[in-house]
């Protein structure tokens, strides 16, 4: 199944919500005028695209309608797809070219960090990469157990310490082990933390510095995992985490279970950090590289769809 179909399936709830709001407006489309623009803006906000994104998108549509004929619903849909996709950060995969590459995975509690790591590890292992998982969530013993299960499933190595150990020490050891064993990619699991707890954010910063010091020439990715069901709160999470460890990408999970998929557009357009992957289920294959054009196409109702 391609990205479009899988997203469309995963996004059933989102598509329903967006179609309900945007679809009604588009179904009643006659011409691009101020009434339509206003209704579209409102519908986009309802679909969780965010007020700033909605307002910018509508401005662009107004401009475009001056230069180009937008007379059918399909032309309106194409214009909206172009505009929304154009507002998002360009698609880019993870850079793991300088080995051992390090992918640090951070986020608040329960968003899907460990699951995402399991999925990523499996996908790299399937490409023939040797993967090391660092169990730097030492907050609960169960966290390392959960990661160990994923390591087995994915065919990855793992370094873990006891409960309560210093997460930065786990990272340090995992780097040493990865070097010794010739691993290609190290993926670091961290404990969920509230973005407004300063001591926990400092701990992340310490991990970040250990990686920079031990592997100055390696490719680095710092992924913030966001739960799509949290809606607009995701934006403030991203801002805080970005201060502790410079984010290179976002993974948006649980898109399969939410009506708030429009948040992807708000995040990608507003944060200056690209969405790199989306999670569309709990299974090992339910992680997809993000494709912005296909995503908005899946989001916007097609003529005769409703
Ligand atoms: N439906 C759905 N569930 C997901 C997805 N990703 C993760 N989950 C589920 O979300 C729950 C939490 O996932 P974890 O990976 O343990 O989350 P975490 O961020 O590591 O949690 P903490 O370590 O406690 O902060 C689990 O039940 C996962 O199966 C997804 O894309 N879709
Ligand atoms: Mg976890």
UniProtKB/TrEMBL annotation:
Binding positions for GTP per the UniProt entry: 107-114, 189-193, 253-256
Residue ranges of every copy of the SRP54-type proteins GTP-binding domain listed in the record: 274-287
Keywords: Cell membrane, Cytoplasm, GTP-binding, Hydrolase, Membrane, Nucleotide-binding, Receptor
Amino-acid biosynthesis listed as a keyword: no
Annotated catalysed reactions: GTP + H2O = GDP + phosphate + H(+)
GO BP annotations, alphabetical order: SRP-dependent cotranslational protein targeting to membrane
Gene Ontology molecular functions: GTP binding; GTPase activity; signal recognition particle binding
EC code(s) of this entry: 3.6.5.4
PROSITE patterns for the chain: SRP54
InterPro entries registered for this protein in UniProt: AAA+_ATPase, P-loop_NTPase, Signal_recog_particl_SRP54_hlx, SR_rcpt_FtsY, SRP/SRP_N, SRP54_GTPase_dom, SRP54_N_sf
Localization in the cell: Cell membrane; Cytoplasm
Annotated membrane topology: Peripheral membrane protein
Functional note: Involved in targeting and insertion of nascent membrane proteins into the cytoplasmic membrane. Acts as a receptor for the complex formed by the signal recognition particle (SRP) and the ribosome-nascent chain (RNC).
PANTHER family recorded: SIGNAL RECOGNITION PARTICLE RECEPTOR SUBUNIT ALPHA
Record note on quaternary structure: Part of the signal recognition particle protein translocation system, which is composed of SRP and FtsY.
Protein name according to UniProt: Signal recognition particle receptor FtsY
Native organism: Butyricicoccus porcorum
Gene: ftsY
């Amino acid at each position: 199944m391609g990205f479009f179909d899988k997203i469309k399936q995963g996004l059933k709830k989102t598509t329903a919500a967006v179609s309900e709001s945007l679809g009604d407006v588009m179904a009643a489309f006659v011409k691009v005028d101020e009434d339509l623009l206003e209704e579209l803006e409102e519908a986009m906000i309802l679909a969780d695209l965010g007020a700033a994104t909605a307002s910018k998108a509508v401005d662009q549509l107004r401009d475009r309608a001056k230069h180009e004929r937008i007379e059918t619903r399909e032309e309106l849909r194409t214009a909206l797809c172009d505009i929304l996709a154009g507002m998002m950060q360009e698609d880019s995969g993870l850079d793991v070219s300088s080995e051992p590459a390090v992918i640090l995975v951070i986020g608040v509690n329960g968003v899907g960090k460990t699951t995402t790591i399991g999925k990523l590890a499996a996908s790299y292992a399937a490409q023939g990469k040797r993967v090391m998982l660092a169990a730097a969530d030492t907050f609960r013993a169960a966290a390392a157990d959960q990661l160990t299960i994923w390591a087995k499933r994915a065919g990855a190595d793992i370094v873990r310490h006891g409960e309560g150990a210093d997460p930065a020490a786990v990272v340090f050891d995992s780097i040493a082990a990865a070097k010794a064993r010739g691993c290609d990619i190290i993926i670091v699991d961290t404990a969920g933390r509230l973005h407004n707890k300063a001591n926990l954010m400092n701990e992340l910063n310490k991990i970040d510095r250990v990686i920079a010091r031990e592997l100055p020439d390696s490719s680095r990715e710092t992924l913030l995992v966001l739960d799509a069901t949290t809606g607009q709160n995701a934006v403030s999470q991203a801002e805080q985490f970005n201060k502790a460890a410079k984010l290179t990408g976002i993974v948006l999970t649980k898109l399969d279970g939410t009506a708030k998929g429009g948040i992807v557009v708000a995040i990608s357009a507003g944060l200056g950090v690209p969405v790199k992957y989306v999670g569309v289920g709990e299974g090992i294959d339910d992680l997809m590289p993000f494709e912005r054009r296909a995503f908005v196409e899946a989001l916007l109702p097609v003529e005769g769809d409703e």
